[in-house]
Amino acid sequence: MVDYAQEIISDGPIIYWKLAETEGNVATDSMGLRNGAYTGAPTLNVDSLVPASSDGAVQFNPDNADVIKIGDNPQMNTGTFKQKTLEFWFKADSLPKAEADVPYQKKMVLWEQGGGWKGLRFYLNATDDSDSPSKADLYFMANSHIGGGTTSDSSTWTAPPLDLRWGGSTDERGPDQSHYGYEDSVPVFVKSEIEVGKVYHVVGIIDGDSEGLNGKLLLYVNGKLVDEVGGVGQMYSHGNDAGIGGINAGTIFHDEISDGTLLVDSYFFDGAIDEVAQYNLTLSADQVAGHYEVGNTAAAPTADAPAINVARNTDGTITITFEGTLQSAPTVNGPWTDVDAPSPLTIPADAAENFGRAVRK
After folding, report:
1. Which residues lie below 8 Å from residue 247, measured CB to CB, with a gap of 6+?
2. Which pLDDT tens digit goes with each residue over 324-336?
3. CA distance 16 to 3
């Protein structure tokens, strides 16, 4: 059996919050770098969102102001970074409702680190104006545009240099609220539509440029690249802590500054989050697809379930070793069809993507 956690660890994360706790208020980092603190009253040890995982996930309830708060760390956010990869699984139980004739829409924050000057974040942005929204846009956004300062003279601000600043917000309230420099800035983000009640594996990548603005943001959903954008430099120090499931201390969005006196809503998430990892490198497309595939097909055996093991080979093929009968399906919910082949079975590199399981008959 391929172990999902070992698959993640083998690719070198700096932080790995499995969110597998059954009690207490500490979100343990398996890499030993920076633990988080559960605040509010999140429900621990709910059903895992990762079929291959044998432990649980964390359920966030906005009514309880549930959020995991994480302090700064030089390897996480207070250094200078050319490359970053952020990875997690989530399922939304409800989504924010879109409103007409407003300067910005309601949101739910999945993960944010940094503050109003520099940082990165994943969030759900309202697009559905029905009473029970079924869809929203998932955003991965980053900015290293503002050096920080309380005067409108940008030449006095600290790093990054003027010609290496990128990202921003269309919120026009900034200059009047000591958030100078956002005037005429251009947000840098990637996005994809998601649906309520569905499980998503999300990977956001900053493939930056330390000498200019020729880098990219990339967004993968369920193992596939769904969006990318250029105009990216490197991430300079973005302190102000981090939050999972809501805003910790402050952030910005493509259309809204939520920092300082402008922070009026922490945009708490409603749903479950699982298996959160951060890397100071860029995962390849094959690695991203591999994590998603292993997470979905290497289901941990129980006493009554047949064992199944999935191994990715160096030539791109996949070898499946299994007990009982192997079944495949186009989605994790089926329909399941018997595979007429003995164990072990080698799947060609160019084969269509499918889910797999082993059953006894």
Report:
1. 67, 109, 112, 258, 263, 266, 267
2. 899 988 875 568 8
3. 15
